[in-house]
Specification:
This protein has 239 residues and is α+β, with helices and mostly antiparallel strands. Helices cover 23% and strands 26% of the residues.
């Protein structure tokens, strides 16, 4: 990898700014001063320092966000604020993007990364990865709904969903439920309940597979995934 690309990727400025940095003779590779932006380095083997401080190269970033309501799951939007806009500058330099999408008013577990291959596999319908949601429902959810969801319900466009596992936490004029599905169709949870004559009031994604939303994260907060969590996601997607 060219030294200017590495330094730009790690947040040391634009290519032009990195070029000036190199000319200042403050960049060293294996203790030797480097001035040429065309110099090639091996990030895994060569020791690169800037102003005497080591540069720790990372290609990918993996974040878990407790998505708040009101933000759209996109890298950019001409009207709405996006989940990417609330990231810190040191994370933005990796140019990450949300894995799949949660609706604007939906909260909870959202993964953000720049690992395109992992993102693609996590959202692939072929992988059948469980996604569990907590929801408040306007209407009484019954055992009949459990059976319908288990069979798959017909959405407003005629699509029949894959089976979903519905768990009733509290039933009444306003019910509380948990729903586990393996798909991610547009507004799917809301449309599944509309198919049985009920309306979702509040929706929050709690987990993907066995990866649970970190309870310590307030809405709008995020953290990096641990090595174990990243390994788990790669394992369930056969990466």
């Amino acid at each position: 990898m060219r030294i200017d690309k590495l330094l730009a990727h790690m947040g040391y400025g634009t290519r032009k700014e990195v070029k000036s940095l190199l000319k200042s003779s403050n960049v060293r590779v294996n203790e030797e001063t480097v001035n040429s932006p065309k110099t090639h380095v091996n990030p895994d083997k060569d020791q690169v320092t800037v102003y005497g401080e080591p540069v720790e190269y990372r290609e990918y970033i993996y974040l878990m966000m407790n998505k708040p309501g009101g933000l759209v799951s996109a890298t950019e939007d001409t009207v709405e604020e996006t989940v990417i806009e609330i990231l810190q500058p040191e994370d933005l330099i990796f140019q990450p993007f949300p894995v799949g999408r949660l609706d604007k008013d939906t909260e909870g577990l959202l993964l953000i990364t720049n690992d395109g291959q992992l993102s693609h596999r996590l959202t692939s319908p072929k992988k059948d990865i469980d996604k569990t949601y907590y929801a408040t429902i306007d209407g009484e959810v019954t055992d009949s709904d459990i059976k319908k969801f288990k069979q798959g319900v017909t959405l407003d466009d005629g699509y029949v969903t894959k089976p979903g596992v519905l768990k009733i936490l509290a039933s009444g004029p306003e019910s509380e439920i948990e729903l586990t599905i393996t798909e991610g169709k547009y507004h799917q949870v809301k449309r599944m309940f509309e198919a049985v004559g009920k309306r979702v009031i509040y929706l929050k994604r709690m987990s993907m597979g066995t990866l649970q939303l970190d309870e310590d994260l307030e809405p709008g907060e995020y953290r990096e995934l641990s090595e174990e969590e990243v390994t788990y996601l790669k394992e369930i997607t056969n990466l």
